[in-house]
């Protein structure tokens, strides 16, 4: 099944972004704790609600941990039981990474993705795997997967920590990806910290998206958009 737009199924986010065209390779970048996983969950949720199947590859959590931690916000377990959501764990922590190992992992992920039947794939996150990788291997990964997205009609979401890799490599990755979401932690004058989401690029954008939104993680709602007035007043 091919869809024109993947919606977040979050009213405010959908209103501001207009959703993300399918197929697309989406980069979600931000510093630690900025909300990358949350946005990845939100896109997973939007895809599942619209009847698409999702393969979620996590290097940050266990299958059980992911389902448990998101249950109050998204209720993935129903989809998991029905096989619409499949989760794959990659152990990336506690490993002594080097160029060779990173290359093997990148090749293994490419091979794995080519075999999946799901229309949507999410990798949260690729940071550990590429931080010690050779630049050419990283670029090969993104270029190959970008072509796979188009030729196989897929939607691929990759999360990355902004400051984990060389600036020029990050710039090249951004340009390979079709859609680009940046997350930032913003400290208000009151010292409150809010999260900011900016959609920098959307494939074949239906409307120009230049609005940043502020949000917080809500235990029952997931990604909750804060009104700008709230951020200003605070
Ligand atoms: N289940 C939850 N209930 C309430 N708040 C949550 C929940 N999960 C995450 N959060 C909050 O959302 C914030 C953003 O979390 P998230 O894990 O999406 O960030 P991240 O950018 O993926 O972080 P990292 O770089 O560590 O992977 C967390 O700091 C936490 O405060
Ligand atoms: Mg995360």
- Kindly report the spatial arrangement of strands forming the biggest sheet: 5-4-6-7-3-8-9-10-11
Give the tally of structural domains: 1
Task: Tell me the radius of gyration.
Answer: 17 Å
Number of strands: 11
CATH architecture: 3-Layer(aba) Sandwich
Taken in chain order, the helices and strands follow as: EHEEHEHHEHEHHEHEEEEH
Q: Main sheet? A: 9 strands, mixed
Class computed from helices, strands and strand pairing: alpha/beta
What characteristic shape results from the CA principal axes? globular
CATH superfamily: P-loop containing nucleotide triphosphate hydrolases
- Alpha plus pi helix count: 9
CATH class: Alpha Beta
Any idea of the CATH topology?
Answer: Rossmann fold
Mean pLDDT: 91
Which bin fits the share of residues in helices?
25-40%
Task: Identify every distinct bound molecule in the structure, by name, code or SMILES.
Answer: adenosine-5'-triphosphate, magnesium ion
User: How far apart, in Å, are the first and last alpha carbons?
Assistant: 45 Å
- The low-confidence parts are none
